[in-house]
Amino acid sequence: MKLIDDLTKGEVKLPSDKSATTYVMLAAFLGWIGVHNLWAGNADKGKAELICGLILTCCCGLGIITQIIALMDVAKLIESQRVTA
Fold first, then answer.
1. Cα separation of 63 and 56, whole Å?
2. Cα–Cα distance between 59 and 3 in angstroms, integer?
3. Cα–Cα distance between 41 and 5 in angstroms, integer?
4. Is-contact 23 14, C-beta < 8 A?
5. I need a labelling partner for 68 at 20 to 30 A (CA). Which of 1, 29, 36, 46 fits?
6. What is the C-alpha separation between 18 and 77, in angstroms, rounded?
7. What is residue 82's predicted lDDT score, i.e. its pLDDT?
């Protein structure tokens, strides 16, 4: 599955027409529902984060878990930008 492959690779790639700054801002403020991945075109991962984020927040009050995952995406993006530079 593409989602599993993307998660195990540990890298975040943005399309050339998408801004890394916007990705980081979306991840920081709306990352708990996967908006940053939906915006970047990672629809499968974004949908999974959206569903998990809503379930964890509504049922358990644990939306912080998906926010941590979003911040890990930001760290992966920064690392991939640093390696390619």
1. 5
2. 25
3. 16
4. yes
5. 1
6. 13
7. 74
Question: 70 is written with which tokens?
Answer: 């979003």
**Encoded tokens for 31:** 């990352």
For 1-85, where are the alpha helices, taking DSSP H only?
2-9, 20-30, 35-40, 43-55, 64-84
Query: How wide is the angle at C-alpha 44 spanned by C-alphas 39 and 46, nearest 5°?
Result: 40
**Alpha-carbon span 76 to 84, nearest angstrom:** 12
Ranges in the chain, pLDDT < 50: 1
**What's the rounded Cα separation, in Å, for the pair 12 and 23?**
10
CA distance 47 to 24: 18
pLDDT of residue 19: 86
Relative orientation angle of helices 20-30 and 64-84, to the nearest 10 degrees: 160
- Signed CA dihedral, 73, 10, 19, 43: sign only: negative
Dig out the tokens for 17 from the structure.
Answer: 């027409």
- Give the separation between CA 30 and CA 24, rounded to whole angstroms: 10
